[in-house]
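Tutorial, part two.
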Amino acid sequence: MSVACRAELISTALGGCRSSRRQLAFCWRRGGSAAGFTACSTEDAAVAKAKFESLALGFQEASPSVSSTTHEGMMRLLQQRTIQMPTGILSEKAMAGLLEGGAGAEVLDRGFPWQEHDFLDGEEENARVLSGFEAAFAAQTGAAPPEWQGLEVALDDPENLRASLDLSVAFIKNYELDKCEILLGRFALPACRARGLPWIAKGLQDYATLRMKQNRQAEAMLLLEDLESMLPAHPIMLHNLGLAYNSLRMHDKAMAAFEQAVALKNGELAYDDYWNIGITLNHTKRHRDAFLQLIRALELAPSDPKVDDVTLAKLNNTLGSCLQGASEEVPTEHAATKLGLSQEAEPYFRESARLYAGVIGKKHHLYGSAVHALSRNLVAQGRHQEAEPFLHEALWIEALKNGIHPTPCHAMLTELLDLHAAAALPREAFAKYHDLMRVMLMHLHCRGFAADGNGGIVMQAIAKVLLLSGQELARPALALLRKGLQLVEGHREDVEDTSWIQLMIRMDIKKTEANLELPDNSAEHAALARPESWLLEGPWGVPQGSGAALGLCLPAAAEWPEPAAAAAEQ
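Running the prediction step on this input gives:
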């Protein structure tokens, strides 16, 4: 079926009746292959170990408080007009005001070759290229991560400042957000402020992009509004501002920004204009109108020479989300229409995942978002067993990515528990999630995300997953439940009442305590039973003091095996 015919058919289903009562059913569906990890691989353990070590060296500044990344917290930031930034480091020359007036701006005309690299050659090649850019920058400036010692002095040379902005965006494109936070936030952006326009315009634009990738949209919006006050209106700036407004649920302001961007181009709509308008309409649940805009974007995108497979993957994912959102609006009494729209969404999600896998690899954050969307889509179709491997992939990526956050972690863990409730995940299959749970817990802890009620409810969800594995993990689960209850009881931000959550955790604690009192004197059980310190074991290592911070007990002498040795044991 052609795109045009399918657009007409789906448009009819989305808009053919009022109150979301749609009568047309669809039958087209496409099969897929199972994918996923079986345990923590040597590679994943090494990634986790390096990430935890870098956080211990000071990358914690890249992680805000949880309350500033929830919707309520971001609304509070907007009222206070607060932007959280790492402590800036400037040279004596910059602090003395000797670089004002846009000094050295002529070097900006040389462009930014590193950030213009498309990074579409697969995970390993992309990493190799980025490492080469880092090495070239270190040779040019004499400074290298993680400390970047002496970089503030090197940035007195405008060519080095241009290179730092160049490398920062290359970091963003590869989701090396921690490295970018330090390079751009601590060094390059303060140096740009010291020089003024046009440097500050480039620095603010890039830092706003970083904040968007970190799910800190309120700060991104404030940065962009600051930039808007400095410069004449520009379509790219309005495009980014509209994206920030959309992410903050300010959809009217987003639409106004997108329409103003089109007006500045004499009313000519490119594929991304249709895309932006479609996203905004979808957010306001005008799914029929959104779909027509998005289909037009998909028709136009391939003819744009700047469009690559990552862009097409994102556009396919947006189309799938539009159809899936429409399905969720259909009342349950119209089951055929509800199912049909989900079936129509599936090919878009699969195409998105396929494109991402081909150009950025299956460990990338964007691939994770695509397979997570596919998993949810398959669940909506009642295909729970097919959904589980994709959810497993998405969970591993979420647990290891720089932008980890309690909210998506909790949502995915809830989906995992729902799969078990739907008989799609037997008890014996939970063993492959054990390492994942421990890595997720430790990563959240390292970033300061396991210190309030948001972290507490994630601990509860992890405990529930562990309890489904049997009595041998009851003690670690009980330790998490007790700590989670303590955190939820002490939570004071973003929610009015946590009494219901507290009640649920107390019930889980009572069930777990009762489970531990059950008689089981078999030698097999004694050998399998794990102490609560099991949560802190693993080849990825743990930062000093983690046990006390999480309310857990470490063994007297803890010796963590190297990744290779751990893999051999598995």
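The chain is about 65% helix and 0% strand. In part three we will examine how such features are distributed along the chain.
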